[in-house]
């Protein structure tokens, strides 16, 4: 934590980029584990389809190598490549400690904001450094159940930065295969969970000030992932905030590392300068004719 409060970094903490002048006060990062874009698009996922249609989107964002759950999510939430965040394993191993890089939750907490994580796999505790996450809930269940737990957190705490993780697509992908009928049905369960989160945001009165960033840690092929195969590396990336983010395709390249940087930047905070990811600064631009 000492490096987090270096003088130069702290002085820039309350930086507000002109590119992020929209009144975003809350960010929900939602990860659909194993969410290969073409499989999501071929499933009956009305919430995801609507949020993409009404938001900024790319179906060609890229994750990191190796494209496995804990490594990829560490890059998503620290803004750093694996060699920098130091998470090279893929299970809950408490003796190994926490990610070496600054997480987006640390940036938010240093600015006095409320943070929370609601996840379906315990190994995410490696990203919940002490003092950085106000509420950490591990709910090892299907997406609608995880979403209900997250909805309670939204209504009770109104966190400024919330991370939610659905495991369904990955679990079924390993069992039945990526692109299988069963996996599409699993993503349809995830879409139900998305609907629960959207309802909670509305009920909490946060709809006009909340940005959703919806992505995935990796895709997959056959019954596996973790390689540099394009089907493993390609992930969705959707930014949805009605009235704030105009509908358009993000034509620039997007990395999973950009998620953390974008989340803190839209909250008016300065991303850690050591991060490899950069804010996706075209979110609030009007689409090109």
List the helices and strands and how they pair.
Blueprint: H1 7-11, E1 26-32, H2 37-42, H3 46-53, E2 56-62, H4 69-78, H5 82-85, H6 104-110, E3 115-119, E4 135-138, H7 143-157, E5 161-166, H8 168-176, H9 181-203, E6 210-215, H10 230-233, E7 234-240, E8 248-249, H11 258-266
Parallel strand pairs: 1-5, 1-6, 2-8, 3-4, 3-5
Antiparallel strand pairs: 2-7, 6-7
Helix pairs in contact: 4-11, 7-9, 8-9
In short:
The protein is 35% helix and 15% strand. It is α/β, with parallel strands linked by helices.
Would you mind describing this structure in some detail?
It is a single chain. The protein is an alpha/beta fold. It has one domain (23-266): Alkaline Phosphatase, subunit A (3-Layer(aba) Sandwich), CATH 3.40.720.10. Helices cover 35% and strands 15% of the residues. The protein has 11 helices and 8 strands. It has helices spanning 7-11, 37-42, 46-53, 69-78, 82-85, 104-110, 143-157, 168-176, 181-203, 230-233, 258-266, and strands spanning 26-32, 56-62, 115-119, 135-138, 161-166, 210-215, 234-240, 248-249. The protein has an 8-stranded mixed beta sheet, with helices on both faces. Helix 7 (143-157) runs parallel beside helix 9 (181-203). The radius of gyration is 17 Å and the shape is globular. It starts with 6 loop residues before the first helix and ends in a 23-residue tail after the last helix.
């Amino acid at each position: 934590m000492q490096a987090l409060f270096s003088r130069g970094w702290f002085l820039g903490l309350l930086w507000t980029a002109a590119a992020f002048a929209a009144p975003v006060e809350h960010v929900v990062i939602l990860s659909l584990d194993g969410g290969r874009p073409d499989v999501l698009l071929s499933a009956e996922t009305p919430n995801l389809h609507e949020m993409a249609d009404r938001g900024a989107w790319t179906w060609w964002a890229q994750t990191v190598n190796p494209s496995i759950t804990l490594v990829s999510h560490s890059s998503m939430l620290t803004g750093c490549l694996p060699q920098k965040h130091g998470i090279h394993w893929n299970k809950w191993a408490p003796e190994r400690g926490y990610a070496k890089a600054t997480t987006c939750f640390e940036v938010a907490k240093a600015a006095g904001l409320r943070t929370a994580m609601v996840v379906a796999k315990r190994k995410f505790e490696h990203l919940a450094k002490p003092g950085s996450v106000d509420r950490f809930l591990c709910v090892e269940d299907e997406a609608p159940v995880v979403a209900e737990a997250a909805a309670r957190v939204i209504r009770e705490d109104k966190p400024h930065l919330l991370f939610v993780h659905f495991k369904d697509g990955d679990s079924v992908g390993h069992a039945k295969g990526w692109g299988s009928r069963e996996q599409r049905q699993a993503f349809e369960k995830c879409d139900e969970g998305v609907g629960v989160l959207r309802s909670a945001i509305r009920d909490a009165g946060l709809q006009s000030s909340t940005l959703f960033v919806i992505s995935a840690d990796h895709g997959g092929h056959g019954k596996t992932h973790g390689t540099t195969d394009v089907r493993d590396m390609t992930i969705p990336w959707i930014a949805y905030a009605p009235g704030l983010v105009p509908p358009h395709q993000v034509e620039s390249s997007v990395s999973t590392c950009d998620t953390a940087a974008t989340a803190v930047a839209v909250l008016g905070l300065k991303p850690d300068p050591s991060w490899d990811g950069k804010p996706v600064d075209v979110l609030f631009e009007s689409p090109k004719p």
